[in-house]
Amino acid sequence: MPHVASVCPFCGCGCGLYLQVAGGRVIGTSPSPDHPVARGRLCVKGWHAHEVATSPGRLTRPLIRRDAALEPTSWSDALDLVAGRLLSLKAEHGAAAVGVLGSARCTNEDNFLLSKLARVGLGTNNVDTTARLEALPGLFDLPQYRHLTRPGAGIAALDEADLIILWRTDPVQDHPAAAARIVRAARRGVPIVEVAWLSGQMGNAAALKLAPRPGSDAWLAGGLLHIALQQAASLSPEWECLAASFSDLTPDRAEAATGVPAGLIAEAGRMLGAAVRPLIVYTRALTLQSEAADVLAGLSALRHNNHGSGEGWPRLLWLSRYSNLQGARDMGVVPYFLPGYQPLADQRARAKFGEAWGAPIPTEGGLSGWEMLGAVRALFVMGDDPLGALPDPAGARRALGALDLLVVVDTVLSPTTEAAHVVLPGASFAEKDGTFTSSEHRLQRLRAAVSPPGEARPEWQIICELSRRLGRPMEYASAADIMAEVASLAPPYTGITYQALDDSPGGLFVPPQATTGEEAGETAARAELSLPAEQAPAPETDDGFPFILALDHGLRSWGSEPIVLGSVCLRRELAPGRAPRTAQLEISAADARQSGFRDGQQVVVRSRVGEMRGALHLSESLRPGLLLLPYSAREAAAAVMPPSLHGETGVPLLLPCAVSIHQVQ
Amino acid sequence: MREHAALVITTSDLPTWVGHLLSRSQLIAPQALVGSDVAYDVVSSPDDVRWDYQNSLTPLKRFLFPPSDPMLRWTQTNGRPSAVEPVYDDKERVFLAVRPCDVSAVLILDRSFGRDPEDVQYTRRRQRSALIALACTEPGPNCFCVCANAGPFLDQGYDVQLTRLAHGYLVEVGTEKGASLLSGCESLFDPAPAAALDARQRLAREAENQFGEDKAYFAAALRQVTFNRVSDDLWRGMGELCLGCGGCAFVCPTCHCFATADCTDSGGGCRLRLWDSCLYEAYTLEASGHNPRAERGQRVKARFFHKLSYQFAQKLGAHGCVGCGRCVTACLGSNDMPAVTARIRRGAL
Questions:
Q1: Domain limit, last residue, from B191, B209, B227
Q2: A515 in contact with B at a CB cutoff of 8 Å?
Q3: What is the spatial distance between Cα B78 and Cα B228, in angstroms, rounded to a whole number?
Q4: Is residue B87 within 8 angstroms of chain A, CB to CB?
Q5: C-alpha angle B78/B80/B83, rounded to 5°?
Q6: Would you call A615 an interface residue with chain B, using a CB distance cutoff of 8 Å?
Q7: Residue among A34, A46, A576 whose CB faces B37 most closely
Q8: Are residues B178 and B248 in the same domain?
Q9: Alpha-carbon distance A325 to A111, whole Å?
Q10: Could you tell me if B199 and B296 lie in one domain?
Q11: Tens digits of residue pLDDT in A21-47
């Protein structure tokens, strides 16, 4: 069949598309007009998704490092080596010395088997994906915070909302399927409010643009709530209590904390209070900030105010950067959850999986992806790129280099494969059956349109082969067989079959159910909701260090993705030209003019702890006083903004800091 | 069978004819996909053909000008390219039940690819293709072919045109190639009675009357674009409504920009032709780093200059839109042809 229905492999929107096949090659894609997310439209990435499969850089043979170079070998030699080394390292150092990283771009079936491989094949709960960092540095999966994203709005909410707040997201770059709906909403007269340092294309259609100082988003959220609450005619007791916690945050005080003019805060607050169906859209540019939990706790509290609002409104819409981050988490690629968010600590859950998988589930807690580096001796990585994801690439590179064994399964070379001892060629989304779960929990089928190139194989088959060599045979005839096991073990996938998915062209919704523990966590979190300090902990600027340097997770971010770099047209569009030799620093044109800097000028940036070099890029739409660096260039800033650990998750974060800019002498 | 013959075939005989076509060449026709989706695709049985569709989202150009198409291959010995061979696709193809807008669009592609220097990659495929149109008796909600003189019924350009009647189809043969598609099956066709020809005229009139209010204001837009009277502010404003997906170019049956890329492996390699879009920022990026169309508004202006200006219409014999309405569905932003021509006419967003 030359039109094969599938799902876009890029972001978490989950657009339905067709792969067009001719002569055994995928030659093109087209959107599905009937698909509820795509509606006959795709973004630049979707229109070129077939180039992910036909990339000239595809890995086609297993590779083993010999004398510093990766050399082709046979599957049996590669897998024998991997199994032998894993068993000997485990025997020597214990199961805790082995770690496994799964993928936000592989299928649910691949990830489910990977979780199983880790827990019963290798006997460790060290299983995670570093892509999970973007989901509120791992906080989304802590019981006390999971309510922040639940029940969560779907993309269709963009069609119904009467106020859309884009909280640090540029949907044109990040999630074009959402942008398509926002453009139409704006044309209908729905007001758009943009909260951003660097105004994006949607900002030009925005009724209001708010540019809070780095680190002060929670104060802005509180300021908006303060005004919105004043408009409520009556408040429930619970809401009264909440209102009290924001009662001091007048627009003037919010201005002092955020730098946003009080008039704008008051106006945005009034819009929020007057809207019947307000929707807040947020992505990793917010959730990778240290204050993300406070912002979301404040905004999600709005959900409990139904005064003047429609049923189920206001809503929060979270959109992931990855096609299947949601699915990877659902499948238990999280150290402290078995598939379906069944807590590892729950003895009954462990017994259930132990019985189904024919071996006891280890009780010892696992390490997160960012804790594994530096702590384990062997790492098995499937479609994950820790060097691309982790805040401290230099530290990650050292940790990977020190491993006794690094095995990477992927479709193309990535920064992580550079350190690998063994590289195994996997299948792209166009070459395997399986499912993705989008950010709005839409479970959809991928279908193999062509065979993998050369000797490449679907990841789940590689895991089965490896597991057999580890003495834990896994027998699955197809990806559908794996889904049958998922459906028997992991609610809310209960009852899911490929037949049921085939019968529902737009997929099926599989939102995780709240556990009792989470509900308790939600109540506790709400009770504690208040602003923790008088003043936002903004970096201390002074005459010596007048600018704030911050990382921007949206800026030119697709251009550093290995699957984008492998595609001819996308590489040209999203990563044009050669990689700049120096870091590109965005500076507001007004600041540059005032300080006498010109576009492209080489500069030295000094903070109180160190210095870096970079080239200035003038921007008319950047908040004055800021200097922005793309996340992909973070390594260049390591001396200026050393990582600090997030209190609850231990995630290293790169926090904004005060800097000065100097001409290169 | 002489040209311009008018015949009829009964609905019950139609599958026999389709089966006959299928035995002679690759047959491409509208087919049902998931849900209500329909696309032109290779048919393996007469039952595959969807006769009651409005239009497919993607045009038939991808069979004549594929999104990713090898142009030449080379072999490599001792690290140097040795033999270089062009790659041609000489398959015989019949396109069945294609919409008049798509047939009109192929005629525009013929002129563009056929100009000196001839694009052999395209013309060899085209010479081996036959077009059987299915006249539109029920235009779709986004259709405006009537404004572009490209439908809903064709007067020329088809090899065969079918019109659905009460109990069968009127079969108008437009070319010798069309006549050859009926040879071997003559017994299935009868000369068209006068009533069938009257019905065709009536159906054509009724179809034209079904077009909605959302027509494309080509006359005003052609003048304004040709004489560069559209303000830069308006282009800039429309630039804000373009999300740079390139979808308009890919679903447009007349767009035919492409890029090339060389893919090498150890034994040689091939040069691929890949669909490209003038709305892409790097489409006009020069090696020096300079981009003459760095702003979105400039790119939108360039696109519609190519679609609507007299300068281009003169080259192609028609302006570059056949009113298929596909860009209305596919535009991620809000710059479909009817919307843009309406904005140009009123001089405001």
A1: B209
A2: no
A3: 55
A4: no
A5: 105
A6: no
A7: A34
A8: no
A9: 10
A10: no
A11: 999 999 999 999 999 999 999 999 999
Q: Spell out which residues of chain B touch residue A180, defining contact as CB-CB under 8 Å.
A: 243, 332-333
**Domains, chain A, ranges and CATH?**
3-53 (2.20.25.90), 63-68+78-128+333-506 (3.40.50.740), 141-318 (3.40.228.10), 547-663 (2.40.40.20)
> Global pTM?
0.95
Q: Residue B266: which residues within 8 A CB-CB, separation 6 or more?
A: B76
Do B97 and B193 lie in one domain? The reply is yes
> How many domains would you assign to chain B?
2
Q: How many helices (H) and strands (E) does chain B have?
A: 14, 12
Q: Which of A162, A78, A27 is CA-nearest to residue A456?
A: A78
Chain B interface includes A39 (CB < 8 A): yes
Judgement on whether residues B56 and B193 belong to the same structural domain of the protein: yes
| Residue among A585, A558, A547 at smallest CA distance from A170 | A558
B1 domain-assigned: no
Question: Is 0.90 exceeded by the ipTM?
Answer: yes
Under 8 Å CB-to-CB from B238, ≥6 apart: which residues? Answer: B297, B300, B335, B340, B343, B349
**Residue numbers of the domain that contains B270:** 218-346
Hey, what are A519's tokens? 């509900």
Task: Say yes or no: B201 and B227 in one domain.
Answer: no
Task: Name the residue among A431, A442, A321, A427 with its Cα closest to residue A382.
Answer: A427
- Shared domain for B311 and B189, answered yes or no, is no
Burial of A274 (C-beta count, 10 Å sphere; 0-12/13-18/19+): middle
Q: Chain A contacts of B58, Cβ < 8 Å? A: 30
Summary count for chain A: helices (H), strands (E): 25, 28
Domain boundary among B209, B227, B258: B209
AA identity, residue A420: A
| pLDDT tens digits, one per residue of A303-320 | 655 445 566 777 889 899
Lowest mean pLDDT among A163-177, A491-505, B76-90: B76-90
Q: Is the dihedral of CA B131, B136, B141, B145 positive or negative?
A: positive
**Looking at chain A, how many residues does it have?**
665
